[in-house]
Amino acid sequence: MNSQNNSIAGHNNSRRFHYGFIIVACCCLMMGVNIGITFSCAGIFYKPVSSSLGVSVGEFGLYMSIMYIASTLVLPLGGKLIDRYSARWLLTGSSTVMGLTLCGMGFCTQLWQFYLAGAVLGATVAFLLYLSFPTLINRWFRVKVGLLMGVCSAASGVGGMLFNPIGASVITNYGWHWAYIGFGLLVLLVDTPLLAILLRDRPSDMGLQPYGIGEAARGAAKGPGEPGIMLAQAVRMPAFYGVLLFSFLMMAMSTLNLFIPNYVTSLSFTLEQGAFAASSAMAGVMVGKLALGHINDRSCMAGVLVTTLAGISGLVMMLGGSLGLAIIISGAFLFGWAYAGVTVQTTMLTRTVFGIADYARIYAYMSMAQAAGGAIASGGWGLLVDATSYPFIFLCGVGMLAVCTVIGVAAVRRRSGPNI
pTM value? Predict the structure, then answer.
């Protein structure tokens, strides 16, 4: 009788407006504003700030590596905290700290102050990027999870497209100090209050069940399935370390995006053409996140193959840059699909292999691997290209994606979680 009532409740929740979609809006807000500003807009500050401080762009840019490292260190604890305590207040608090830090960066006068700010931002990013929407979407939804992951993740690109020209205009007319302060105030006065008002931890807090639970239950009745496994069991599985490596390599590979403009100009194209190729990659990221979410709702195996094979094809096409700019732009677009897989495919692979029972804590370790990959590769590729060439590092990316293909396929085939 209870199961019948649960099924009816899940069915009715699926037909009426469900508060889960407010949670999706909050996740898009975090990704579009918090992450869109912190990551997608970081580049517009590199030259003006480094010139003002009298340091090289590379020295200033190290604050981003520090941010990745800080996220890596915070994530294991963050996964436990967001599972045990209120995600609503952890995320609202993280947004508050991020806004204050961005405002503080407007008053920095020494390089070490930016490094300290990077460490603080990294701690907040652990929650706002790596743990926010993967945890909340898995709590609030049982159907269309992949698509909603893609929508939330794609919001960071939308934020970057919106705030980059605004930030650049403020820098040009008023200076980089006011751009940082303006971004910080936006986070503090708009983003943070909305999160505090609208976010809720779980459907049960509002007397609801996860959206689509009735459909998920009917689907589970058609085949074997279980809610998932706990972290203590997962760490004894080879698949756990396989997905860890998948996460690390995907993030490391994605940072090749930073070198697309310079690679294009090295082929005697103009800087504007190089920037257009980079924009094509970002277009691929946005389209890829939505498409991969939709694909993963049907088959995680297909998602793995589309992610990695599109990236391999894109890098190979860019290596054929001597054939023309159109080939490079097309290759950059396909590479963007692999870049999109860093967030969408890693979250869905983790969910498919391990289930949702202890998802937050398990995914915290996958996020830690991602952050470590970004921290190492963002600086490592530059050193490697100085010692070798752009084609060589792109070939390394092809090799990484080939390894990810094997790992992802093997992990899906041996999954121990629910058949999602």
Answer: 0.72
